Structures are given as C-alpha cells and as structure tokens.
C-alpha cells in the first residue's frame, strides 16, 4: 500500500494534541504506561464477567468471541457534534418521509428522482406494507447512522442502518467500563453521558404506541429470536435496562385482536414490540410459513392498528447500497434542503460505464454487495492480492447489479494502547438515533469501531475490529 | 343485475384442533361496476380477531378457531348490484404500483409450456394488447382443458399448463403468467359468478385481469371464454391465488381436514 497521510483525530502534525484531546493528552502524559496496560487487561476481564460476547457467523470453532476494547477514548468536540447531530437529524427525517412515500404514493418515483428499479428490484421491498401507515407515522424507530471522518471538517455517511442497527449495548458497557477504570478523568473533563439511552429508548418507543392503547404507560417488549442469535446479549441487555419484557415468539399470541404475552396470570396485551427478528420470519401466516421465530397474525394486528412494530417491516429497502447512492437526492426531495452530511461517491456496477470504471480501477476501490452487511463479501482493493482481485473481477462480471463500488476512504485514526505505546488505528462511528412522532433524539456518543490491525480499514467486529468509548464533550 | 349470494365454507377435522388462525378475503367491496347492498359474515366454531384492508385493499378478516373445536364454518351472505362493464374495470390502481403486477411469483413463473403459449400471441399483442389478450385467453382454453380434481390450490401455473388440464384457478394463473411474460401487468381475481341454470355451485370462481394501455384493468375469464360482465362479483385480488385466496390458514397439529362448500348465486 502506498504511503498515505491519514487524519489523526488526537494529534496535530507537529505532535501537539488537537483541542478536543488536550485535557486527555495532558492526563495521559502523567500516567504510567505499564499501569495503563494493566488496566487494559482488567477491562477484558470485566467484559468477560458481564458476558458481552458475540457470535461470529461462518466460523465453526469460534462460537463466542469477545470484542476487543481499547481504553483510549475517541473524543468529539461540542461544535463537531452539533454539525453531526444536525446532519443526522435531517437524514433520518428524510428516511422516514421516504419510507412513508414508497409504501404509499411513490411520489419520488413519479417525479423521476429515483429510478423505479431501485425499488422494484429491491429484495427488502415488502408489498404487505403498501398503504400501511404505522402508528405515529414512524418507520425507522431506531437508526444507527455509520459515519467516517477523513479530515478536520470532513464526515461521510457510510451506511444508514435503518433496519436493525446493533451495538448500542457496547456503547453503554464501554462507558460503564471507562467510568469504573478512570473516574478521575470524568471529573476533569465534561463528557456528555450516554447512560440515559435505555430510558430514552423506552420513552421513544412509548411515544409510538398505537392510538388506542389502554392505560397511561404503553407496554413494551423486546422480541428476540432466542439465545442462539448473535445479538442475544444485546436483546436481553436492552429489555433489562429499559424495564421491558424480553419475549420469544412462543410467548406471544394474537388474542382479542391484539398481540398478547403469556404471563402466570393470563394474557397481557402489548402496545409496542421492539423486534430483533427479521421481516421474513416475523409472521408465519403472512411471510415464511416455516418460521418458528415469528408470531402468527402479528401482521394482521399490525395492519389493523393494534400494535407498533419497531422498526417497521419493510424498512430494509433503505439499507440497500444501490439506494444509498441516491441518498443526497432523497434528502433534497423530502426536506427541500441540501444534505448536510456527505455521501461517499458510489459507482453502481449495474450501470455499464460505472462497471467499466470499477473494473479498470479495482485495486483502488472498495466493492460491496448491494444487500450485504457486516463487512461480509466485500473487497478492499488496496489490501487485496492479485489473485483475490482476479477472483472478484469474475464475480463482478457475472452479477454486476449485485455490487456497488466506492473509493477507498482515508479513514481518520485514533490511537490505541499497545505495548509499544500509542499507535494510530482507523475508526468509524455509529451514533444511535431514536425517532418518535414527537422528536428525533440522538445520544451524544455512539459506538466507535476500530480496526486493530495496523493499516487495516475494516472495522467490523466480525472481521477483527474492536471498540472504543466515544466521548462527546459538553460546551 | 342484482345478485344474491350465500356461501358457506366448512372445515371439519378428525380430532379437536388446539390452535388455528384463518385469514379470510371473502367480503366484496363497492367498486367500479359493483355496489354491495348488504353483506354479512357469520362464524361458527371461530372468533373474529381483526378486520382490516390489506395491501391490495381487500377486506381481510383474521379469525381464530375456538380451541378444542373440530369444525369451523364461515357463512357469507349478501346482495350485490352489478353493472356490465364488458370486463373493463378501469384505471383505478389503488396504491399498489403497476410494476408489482409485472413480477412473477413462485406460482406464476412461466416454463416452456406457458412461454410457448405466450409466443403464439406475441405478434398480436404487439399490434393490439386487447386483441392479443383475447387470443391468449382462447389459446389457454384450447391448451388446458377444464377438469376438476386434477390440480391442487398449490399447483403452479406451469405445472397445470404442461398437464393440459385444470380449473378456473389454473386458467387464471396461466393467463397471468403469460401476460406478464409478454410485459403486461396482470393480477388474480377471486369472486362469484352467476351461472346459467345452475344455482348450487361447488366452488367460488376466479379469473385474471390484465392492464391494457388506454383501458386500464380488463378482466378475462379463460374458463368461460368471456370478459366478466354483470354476472360477476369481484371479491379479492392479488398477484396470484395465494394472495387473493378466500381462506388462508395456519394450524397446529396434524388433524386431517375435510372441506365442504355450499354456494348459491342467484338473481
């Protein structure tokens, strides 16, 4: 790989810390690196004890793995955050307006601003949602907007994750760990808290309850596929921390037209279900008849307006990477404003000229599957061998419309703690966004993922990435 | 014409059923060419859960079989005033986009037989979509003999076409498959038909609708070689039989099911 200069979020080129990191750098210089390394090892024990692990798909020997945690925080200034917040708010509102439009009048297609095939060939388009307005008009109740940074004022949205963003439990546990290990740092620096996320989630979901819910406090439950799911820890964590029930499909049934939960004292009606079960498995009566993870009739109750499903079925169309390339137009179409956050330039390989460009420049590009996620099935050109490039070229030629390509972004770095001291590693950021009819709430912080391997640009935990605590500073 | 319809569907089981849900699409709606004067659905052995309009605006009712019962019956009764539109339902599309009706479903994916039938009318369709579809309807009736008991409700269009026999459901799905293959949006309609000198019918009826440029949706009843007129009542529509089926259910356990239908359509 050729020598490239990456934006270092902690230090200026002369070596002085950037302003947001000034207090931290001062503190760090007075610490003994050995004791910090020891704390780093303690953090791992802490995570093992509380049981944050995740399952990796497609690896038979590593059922459960710990996501490595790095003790150097990623720090964002108040003014930087304000811009991100504004941009995310705009983008999430546009996404909801877009989903409402696609499942109703499809004005954006009629206006010619989005080609019809982007929707008609989108595997996540759910005909059963046509004409359906979810309670409160909200489709994406929980969004995780993936951002990357390439310079002082350069942020890009990498993915919108409108379907089922995961990882919020890591945001919370990372902070908890940092508070326990470095309490003095939090007295020195004004770090905005993230601990209210579960309460905010509970409030936000409650505000999306169907209009006819009985009582003053909507009943909320988290629907999990079960303990074998890779994110089961997060499902139980969130249910626990927001004071909601954790349920599996077998606990639920449609009774008197409402989705109800079995309890020792009979059935109890639910108002809002935060489901972590995919659309296809959600209802064996309407979707996959073989699904044991879903609730028969839940879609009927939903269309009748008796339950809120978060996120709404069919929101996955917004996670399609071909659709992503139209996000600047989508934001403009629904908000009448230019997008505040930039989109990464994206070549749609379905288009002949783009495909030619991509094939000619494969070694410099990142190529992703249109419906892929988690860093699976993607090519990072600069890191690929000649043989890998050749193999990918064949895949591209065979199914061009399955791929999009993007330039290899010069992702910013934040140092991690290594035996040899601080060493820069590439990062991204996933802030967590809650949407209700009343407001868009963005937790000041998020999940910073870090590529632990030197030079690596792939931050996904399934590909050996780690996490950091993310600090948004107060004014 | 005013049609009086009584339709009783009974499912009986050889042992009590613990849990079963049924989605009913059995209530016609007032629309182009038809006005529902009155309509009622009565359940025995089951309880209504919710009623709503589905994604094709079909009136849909979810019912649950009463736990432990071994039979459920659904009786629909009503009167509908029907007008003869010569099959032309018109441009009203609802919210479902036309492109949705261009997409084949697993039940309508054409194979060699359907592609061959479609090929016969390709030229005619290019010259005039309406003429082409009339010819297609005739070609399907010639190729696939109406015969009951040869196909199931789950038989895909191509299987029925290659067997060369089937019922109105198969005719409709073959018509849909071929029309889509030729690039015309098509959909499945389930409903009722007043038959000449027959009061007691064995099953409800089904036909196809194809989107013809300039006319909108036009009905084609392959089995009777006509476009639906004032003897036809449209009840539900979908991309294939499965989406428009009068009853779609899910049941726990392995009880053996027996279906009994009693249907009268009269003036």
TrEMBL record, chain A:
Task: Give all residue intervals belonging to the Circularly permuted ATP-grasp type domain.
Answer: 73-451
User: What protein am I looking at?
Assistant: Circularly permuted type 2 ATP-grasp protein
This protein's species is: Pseudooceanicola sediminis
Pfam families reported for this sequence: CP_ATPgrasp_2 (PF14403)
Highest rank taxon of the organism = Bacteria
Signal peptide bounds: none
Q: Which Gene3D superfamilies match?
A: 3.30.1490.270, 3.40.50.11290
UniProtKB/TrEMBL annotation, chain B:
Family matches, as Gene3D superfamilies:
3.10.620.30
Ranges of residues in domain Transglutaminase-like: 160-224
Which superkingdom, per the lineage? Bacteria
Q: Name one Pfam family in it.
A: Transglut_core
- Extract the InterPro entries matched here: Bac_transglu_N (IPR013589), Papain-like_cys_pep_sf (IPR038765), Transglutaminase-like (IPR002931)
| Protein name as annotated | Transglutaminase family protein
Organism, by scientific name, is: Pseudooceanicola sediminis
Write the lineage as a comma-separated list: Bacteria, Pseudomonadati, Pseudomonadota, Alphaproteobacteria, Rhodobacterales
């Amino acid at each position: 790989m050729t020598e490239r200069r990456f934006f270092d979020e902690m230090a200026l080129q002369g070596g002085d810390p950037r302003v947001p990191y000034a207090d931290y750098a001062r503190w760090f210089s007075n610490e003994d690196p050995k004791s910090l390394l020891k704390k780093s090892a303690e953090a791992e024990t802490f995570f093992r004890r509380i049981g944050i692990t995740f399952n990796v798909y497609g690896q038979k020997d590593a059922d459960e793995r710990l996501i490595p945690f790095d003790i150097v925080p990623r720090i964002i200034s108040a003014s930087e955050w304000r811009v991100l917040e504004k941009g995310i708010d705009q983008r999430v509102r546009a996404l909801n307006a877009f989903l409402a439009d696609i499942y109703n009048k499809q004005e954006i297609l009629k206006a010619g601003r989005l080609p019809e095939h982007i929707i008609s060939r989108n595997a996540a388009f759910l005909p059963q949602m046509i004409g359906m307005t979810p309670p409160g008009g909200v489709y994406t109740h929980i969004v995780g907007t993936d951002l990357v940074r390439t310079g002082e004022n350069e942020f890009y949205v990498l993915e919108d994750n409108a379907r089922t963003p995961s990882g919020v439990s890591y945001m919370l546990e990372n902070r908890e760990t940092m508070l326990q290990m470095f309490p003095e740092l939090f007295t020195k620096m004004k770090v905005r808290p993230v601990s209210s996320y579960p309460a905010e989630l509970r409030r936000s979901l409650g505000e999306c309850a169907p209009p006819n819910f009985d009582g003053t406090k909507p009943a909320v439950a988290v629907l999990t596929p079960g303990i074998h799911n890779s994110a089961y820890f997060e499902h139980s964590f969130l249910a626990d921390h927001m004071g909601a029930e954790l349920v599996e499909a077998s606990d639920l049934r449609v009774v008197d037209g409402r989705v109800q939960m079995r309890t020792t004292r009979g059935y109890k009606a639910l108002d809002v279900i935060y489901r972590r079960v995919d659309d296809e498995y959600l209802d064996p009566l309407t979707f996959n008849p073989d699904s044991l993870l879903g609730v028969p009739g839940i879609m009927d109750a939903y269309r009748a307006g008796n339950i809120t499903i978060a996120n709404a079925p069919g929101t996955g169309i917004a996670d399609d990477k071909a659709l992503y390339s139209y996000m600047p137009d989508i934001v403009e179409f629904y908000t009448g404003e230019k997008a505040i956050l930039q989109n990464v330039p994206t070549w749609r390989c379905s288009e002949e000229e783009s495909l030619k460009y991509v094939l000619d420049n494969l070694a410099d590009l990142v190529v992703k599957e249109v419906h892929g996620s988690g860093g699976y099935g993607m090519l990072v050109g600069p890191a690929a061998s000649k043989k890998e490039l050749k193999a990918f070229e064949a895949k591209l030629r065979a199914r061009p419309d399955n791929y999009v390509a993007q330039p290899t972004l010069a992702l910013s770095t934040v140092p991690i703690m290594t035996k040899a001291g601080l060493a820069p590693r590439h990062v991204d950021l996933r802030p967590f966004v809650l949407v209700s009819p009343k407001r868009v709430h963005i937790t000041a912080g998020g999940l910073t993922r870090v590529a632990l391997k030197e030079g690596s640009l792939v931050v996904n935990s399934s590909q050996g990435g780690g996490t950091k605590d993310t600090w948004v500073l107060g004014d | 014409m005013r049609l009086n319809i009584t339709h009783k569907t009974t499912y009986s089981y050889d042992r009590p059923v613990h849990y079963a849900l049924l989605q009913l699409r059995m209530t016609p709606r007032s629309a182009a060419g038809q006005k529902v004067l009155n309509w009622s659905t009565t359940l025995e052995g089951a309880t209504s859960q919710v009623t709503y309009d589905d994604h094709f605006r079909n009136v849909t009712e979810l019912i649950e079989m009463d736990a432990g019962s071994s039979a459920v019956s659904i009786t629909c009764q009503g009167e509908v005033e029907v007008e003869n539109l010569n099959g032309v339902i018109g441009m009203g599309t609802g919210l479902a986009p036309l492109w949705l009706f261009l997409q084949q479903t697993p039940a309508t994916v054409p194979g060699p037989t359907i592609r061959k039938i479609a090929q016969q009318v390709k030229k005619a369709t290019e010259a005039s979509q309406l003429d082409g579809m009339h010819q297609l309807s005739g070609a399907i009736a010639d190729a696939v003999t109406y015969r009951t008991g040869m196909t199931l409700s789950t038989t895909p269009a191509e299987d029925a076409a290659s067997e060369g026999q089937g019922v109105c459901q198969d005719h409709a799905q073959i018509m849909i498959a071929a029309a889509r293959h030729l690039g015309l949006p098509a959909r499945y309609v389930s409903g009722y038909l007043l038959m000449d000198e027959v009061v007691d019918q064995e099953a409800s009826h089904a036909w196809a609708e194809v989107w013809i440029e300039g006319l909108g949706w036009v009905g084609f009843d392959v089995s009777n070689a006509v476009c639906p007129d004032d003897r036809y009542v449209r009840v539900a529509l979908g991309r294939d039989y499965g989406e428009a089926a009068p009853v779609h259910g899910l049941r726990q356990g392995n009880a053996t099911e027996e279906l009994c239908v009693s249907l009268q359509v009269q003036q």
